[in-house]
Each structure stands twice: as C-alpha cells, then as structure tokens.
Amino acid sequence: MPDARILVVDDEPDILSVLVYHLSRKGYRVTTAVNGHGALASAEAERPDLIILDLMLPGMDGYEVLQRLRLGERTSSIPVILLTARTEEEERVRGFEVGGDDYITKPFSARELTLRVEALLRRSKAEPVSATRRIAVGPVELDREAHTAYSDGEEVDLTPLEYRLLEVLLERRGRVQSRRQLLQSVWDTNARIETRTVDMHVARLRTKLGSSGLLIETVRGVGYRFRALDK
Q: Beta strands 102-105 and 154-156: pairing type?
C-alpha cells in the first residue's frame, strides 16, 4: 500500500534512520517518535495506518504505549508491529496479550520488515478471504470485502487480530474452540506456555460487540464458542 502513513517509534537513532530509509524507499509516508509520550501524541493527532513500536523505550515502555493506544478511541484499531531485541517467547506472547498484531526481533532484515509491513497493511484493509463475502450470525456480521464488522447494524472498530478472532469464531459457530486452536488459527503460534492471550482478546472483543458480546460463550476449562443462531 504505497502512500500509507507509518509511525516509527524507537529511541535508537541508528535504527530509526534505517527504518525511515527503507520504508520511505517503498513509498510510505513516515513520521517518527523517540519516546512513549511522543508516540501517543503523534498517533492521536495523525492516526497513522500502521505503527512500528519498540518495546524498550525510556520512561514509558512500549507495552504501556500499546495499552494506551488500544484504549484510545482514535487509536484502538491501528495495526501495531512490535520491535525488540528480546527473543524470549514469553515476551512475544506478552506483546500479543496487550494488543500487538505482529512482532519482529532485532537485528532484522529490511526485506523482512517491509514484507511484514505490507502483509499487515493488506490484512488491515483486507482483501476477500473466501468466496463468501459476508458472514452473519444473529446481530453480528462481517463484510469480508470491506473488512468491516457490525453489531446490531452498527460498525465495530476492530484491530486486525480482533477481526480475525471474530471471523474464526463465526466460521466455527456452535463448535467449542480451545485456546490452543485459537492461538494456532488467529495468532499462527503453537506456544507451549500457558497464556491469557486469548482470554484478553476475547474480553476486548466482547466489550466492543456490546450486548452481542454475550454470544461468545466461555466453555469452562476448554475455551470459547460463538453461539449458533439462525440469521
């Protein structure tokens, strides 16, 4: 998506310069911030199409920045790629738990970074994912061509991961999905550690769906199920 606006947040000048250089070469409009407060101010003012966020920022770290972004009315659905030197799986999972959409570790290749950016932008604007344009269960509906979700006829502002989670639950309505199945289908991970990643995203999704969120049922000790209803 040439001409997309990308906010890059990193306190290391060398890395910031590399990111700006390679993203600008691809035709993206790039703005920068070197700390959490600057990142939040820029995201609120400009509402970029995507944010690349370093986790190890001075003062307010990237996790707190991401949490605040997800709570902001204008910033809650902006796709975020997390960037860090840490390689531990626990760190990656924590990033997903607080609302990250993708995760890249340093050092990274410019090609990998730009491919991840392109993929996430495509996902957020989204192309059709199947021959069925719309999927509706009761008051909840997805328009896959427009990549939009509706609850009781009102559009719901979802992040790419929240959208994918809802899509999987709707596609498999009436069937219980374990947390492991959802991690594999939505996050594309087979993490073996116990995590509240799925629980936290389901909780946010329920809140955004309003009264329709009650259709996402918790199956104690197993996972979640979207209640099957006639259209």
A: unpaired
